[in-house]
What does this fold into?
Amino acid sequence: MKILSTAAAVPPGRLTDGDLDLALGLRDGASFKATGIRSRHISTTETAASLAADACRAALEAAGLRWDDVDALVAASATMDQALPYNAAMIHAELGLGGKRTTTFDVGASCMSFIAALDVCSALITVGRFGRVMVVSSDVSTFTADRTNLKVGGLFGDGAAACLLGPAQAGESSAILATRSVTLSDGVDFCRIPSGGSRFHRRTPDSGAGAFFEMTPKALYSLVARELPGFVDRLLAEAGVTMEGIDLVVPHQASPLALKHIIRTLGIDAGKMVDISADHGNQVGASLPTALHHGLAGGRIQRGAKILLLGSGAGVTIGGTVMIY
It folds into this structure.
């Protein structure tokens, strides 16, 4: 499998640390000290589907292809524009593809949705089910994040990223070497938005309260920190590489503090890591593919380089992929 192109899209609105300080009546620098984030893009009228469509169009243009050349559209997001229909159908409509009979479906694993979709789609490409697949992650957290809680809601930003996949040709080294994911469901309540489904629905008293993002940061951090080193060791062993052999590490941009912890815990050279968190915040499911796009677009690696995609998300799920670009 080969990455043919990537692209990212963000809404034009921005919320800076200074804006948060002013809105919350804090002293200058207080929100940055709490989050490590200087600014993030925020939606006003933009939806996850509209941002996803922008990213898809840009990825197609970058590859020099048209929608007729794409066999499937796969949405890999953590949040929904609405409860029904599924995200990929909404994106297909936003792209104006009503007359094109494209296969569309969602792959969901919260912030690890892109890694899960990459795993599924690479297998489908390898067995010949699809030729080219557009995988797009798009999330709008602005309307569910409580910005007054800086250490939780103050972390998030909005955006989308698309990745066009296809089969590697004869003589090309591009491939998935290994993919792993594990779910630590003892932490299922550590990171959630309760409403939107049948458990906490509109007929439930005070259902509106469950529409906001909730996180238990210390418990979540402790659980992931305990499991991550062993997880990465097993993933690298399966891929047949060492951390020294990885050319670029692309993590989920959970927070600047989380990325520093990954560097310290896993012994990663900071120069090998893509870190866009200070200027994008945590873009939820779109976070990792946006970081991947920035890493590739910035020319930091060439074809044949080894990439480690890594992160964790609600569930609690830890996921990772080692691939040759």
About this structure: The longest strand covers residues 175-183. The mean pLDDT is 94. Residues 175-324 form a domain with the Peroxisomal Thiolase; Chain A, domain 1 fold (CATH 3.40.47.10). Residues 217-239 form the longest helix (23 residues).
